[in-house]
Design goal:
This protein is of the alpha/beta class and 190 residues long. Strands 1, 2, 3, 4, 5, 6 and 7 form a seven-stranded mixed sheet that branches. α1 packs parallel to α6, α5 packs across α6 and α5 runs antiparallel to α8.
């Protein structure tokens, strides 16, 4: 049975490291893993999506509408943008941070209100936490991606040690302690 995870966000937020960490973890667990390249405007500010698919045998890295088991989102609007990709029983893990897209910055549009409630109203499960505050508590606003991975780990039947080993494999040694703290803060947040 193939499982599908979409990592969505804005360029420059660390979705590449998040997908690398997931891929590393799942490979060590013996799964066939396909990670897509980043799609979208990967320079700062553009919408970005990465697909991570794993199972016994995975043939394509692409996830179609209605197929995602998980959406991990770096901010609310990006989660809402991809909600149609969710399976009926899917889980969204979303950072409550709001980053204004270009139409909002230029005044051509306003940031939509109550996105968490609107997504939940579609029937999907939404786990919304303030990842930026937790990343700052860990020591760096750049650790939002690892806070999100910590939160996602709650939905996987894998020991924390395996996630920690994946972090060790993907993060430079000088940032290891900070990232392990960010991971645990995300996992244990109320």
């Amino acid at each position: 049975m193939t499982k599908n995870i979409m990592i969505v966000g804005v360029g420059g937020q660390g979705s590449l490291l998040a997908s690398k960490l997931l891929g590393s973890l799942l490979l060590t667990e013996g799964y066939d893993v396909k990670v897509s390249e980043v799609h979208g405007m990967s320079q700062r500010g553009g919408s970005v999506v990465t697909y991570v698919r794993y199972g016994e045998k995975v043939y394509s890295p692409i996830i179609d509408k209605g197929q995602a088991d998980f959406i991990v989102s770096f901010e609310e609007l990006e989660a809402a943008r991809y909600v149609e990709y969710m399976k009926a029983d899917g889980q969204i893990v979303v950072n409550t941070q709001q980053m204004d897209p270009m139409p909002v910055i230029t005044g051509a549009a306003t940031y939509p209100e109550n996105l968490i409630e609107k997504m939940a109203a579609t029937g999907v499960k939404v786990d919304a936490i303030d990842c930026l505050s937790l990343a700052l508590e860990a020591g760096s606003p750049k650790a939002v991606n690892i806070v999100l991975m910590g939160r996602l780990s709650k939905y996987f039947d894998m020991p924390i040690e395996k996630w920690q080993k994946a972090i060790e494999a993907c993060v430079p040694a000088k940032f290891l302690e900070l990232n392990q703290k960010a991971f645990m803060l995300g996992r244990e947040a109320e």
